[in-house]
Amino acid sequence: MMNKDAKIFIAGHEGMIGAALVRCLKTAGFNNLITKSFSQLELTNQSEVRKFFLQEEPEYVFLAPVKEGGILANTTYPAELIYVNLQIQTNIIHFASEVKVKKLLFLGSSCIYPKFCLQPMKEEALLTGLLEPTNEAYAIAKIAGVKMCQAYNKQYNTNFISVVPTNVYGPNDNFDLKTSHVIPGLIRKFHQSKIERKKEVIIWGSGTPRREFLFVDDFADACLFLMNKYDQSEIINVGYGKDVSIKELALTIKNVTEFDGELIFDGNKPDGMPYKLLDISKMNKLGWSAKTDLKKGLKKTYTRFKEIRRESKK
Ligand code: GDP
Question: Which of 204, 264, 284, 313 has a beta carbon 3.0–4.6 Å from 269's, enabling a disulfide?
């Protein structure tokens, strides 16, 4: 168990997941959190990260995503994604071990499982088949992170755990259409079409791929739970437990945003993985499950999206 005054470093606190982790830790009463903006600490820079760890000596580390993106970002910027992720995680995992942090939580991604993985995807499926080409570079970086944590646990007796989240969404998500995941992308498109009184919204791909979505505050809660309760090298899945097709998702977002036009499916855009549902029985056995259903989470996300738009117009 982490003490309330334990020194906790949250890497990537400017991203949606990192920010939710900070909120969750603060609400739970943790009062010694360290966060560094990009200008204060360039995580890709080995000597800066080394200096930071030697100076601060954090007791716990959460390694939240710093650079990631949706299907278009993954196919457009694979080099940046593999370089930045490998660099950041290598620096942090290594120096966390050097200064003997008590525990580190590394975040993987459900894209680390094989493209044609048996559904729901169990933790044991890792490295049993070829990856989905659209996100291979990012997935390889994440797999390297998992394996690096396991190697350090083995050789240096560290307590570095790896968590595999399903697709996470929520307020403060990245709503940039070129780099976003499907939920923020569609919220923005539906909202825009409603405002501009357009007749249709374009949905990428066939609409048939299925995805599982987890609300970001539930995910942050799961990370805190695991930091306190889980001490094994084996990866552990965190998901919602149910998936929906992209078409069903689009219809729900249409409803939440109150858009009354048509959906057009653009078959020239990639579908990515056909299915991506995590087997969460391991997490459930530990006593954790998600609280926020998709509709409720989408409503919260849309409300915040509109607030941000209003604030930026002021
Ligand atoms: P993935 O889970 O890694 O494939 O990443 P995404 O969240 O980006 O995409 C999930 C699925 O939603 C894919 O099949 C996309 O083609 C589909 N999709 C439909 N419309 C959109 C959109 O506007 N943006 C994004 N990112 N994906 C979309």
Answer: 204
Nearest CA to ligand 1 atom 23: 185
Residue pair 239/277 in contact (Cβ under 8 Å)? The answer is yes
Cα 212 from Cα 166, distance rounded (Å): 6
Q: Say if pTM beats, i.e. exceeds, 0.70.
A: yes
Closest atom, ligand 1, to C-alpha of 69: 8
Distance from the alpha carbon of residue 248 to the mean position of ligand 1, in angstroms: 13
Q: Which residues are catalytic?
A: 138
Determine which residue's CA is closest to atom 10 belonging to ligand 1: 182
In terms of Cα–Cα distance, which of 24, 12, 9, 5 is closest to 224?
24
H/E stretch holding 147:
helix 136-156
Q: What number does the ligand 1 atom closest to the CA of 246 have?
A: 12
Q: Which of 204, 208, 210 to mutate to test the pocket of ligand 1 (most atoms within 8 A of CB)?
A: 204
Closest atom, ligand 1, to C-alpha of 74? 3
Per-residue pLDDT of the chain (314 residues; tens, 9 = 90+): 899 999 999 999 999 999 999 999 999 999 999 999 999 999 999 999 999 999 999 999 999 999 999 989 999 999 999 999 999 999 999 999 999 999 999 999 999 999 999 999 999 999 999 999 999 999 999 999 999 999 999 999 999 999 999 999 999 999 999 999 999 999 999 999 999 999 999 999 999 999 999 999 999 999 999 999 999 999 999 999 999 999 999 999 999 999 999 999 999 999 999 999 999 999 999 999 999 999 999 999 999 999 998 988 87
